[in-house]
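pasting for ref
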Amino acid sequence: MDEEKRDSLREEARAKERAYYAEHREKIRARKRAKVRANHDKYLAYWRARRERNRALGLKPKQGDPEKRKAYYKAYYKEHRDRIRAARKLADAQHPERATAQHARYYEKNRERLIQYERDKRGQDPFVREYRERRDFFKQHPRIRRIWWIFRSMISWEKLTELTPQIENGPCDICGITDQLMRFDHDHKTLKFRGLLCHGCNVALGHFADDPAILQKALAYLQRAAAIEGAESDVTVTD
């Protein structure tokens, strides 16, 4: 048989094999997977022994472009992710002690990378980002924390951050005093925020029961007392 005819027959045989494999691919793969699962420990021991032998002989694994290899593995895993995960879960369930030891080794080897990955992943959570922003804000403004905890149902977070300079240094919305911590004034009936007052003005409104009529009477009283004092001073000067 000449070389040309031999090559032709070889190509025909390969074509038949490819056609058969394409027609029965799932069945062949299932049979191979079942065989591997049934002889998992045997195969594992064989490959470990082979690896140790190659190391002892100084043999290195096949070299290649690591980026291409990484891209290939990534694409393969993406295409067969469900099957690979199912196989891993089955193997872990059959050999829990080995799986636990393997996971522990992997964590110790990649501890820093895994911790950073979890931090970055949590950092993408809107709730975590909001928590971190408020934590940093309260570190810079420690006196605001208690105020926010008490009045958080009356004022929004955006309004609180906007009023923070006035809360810490004034001025008071009534007397205009500065350089002291302001108090939150609110309506005791509707529980709505009204403004920022100093301690004296806030206490005074409380004593007047937030009643404008009483405040008007207090104003008239002060004006009347001032008028009397003015009249008495005029009489003294005349004498």
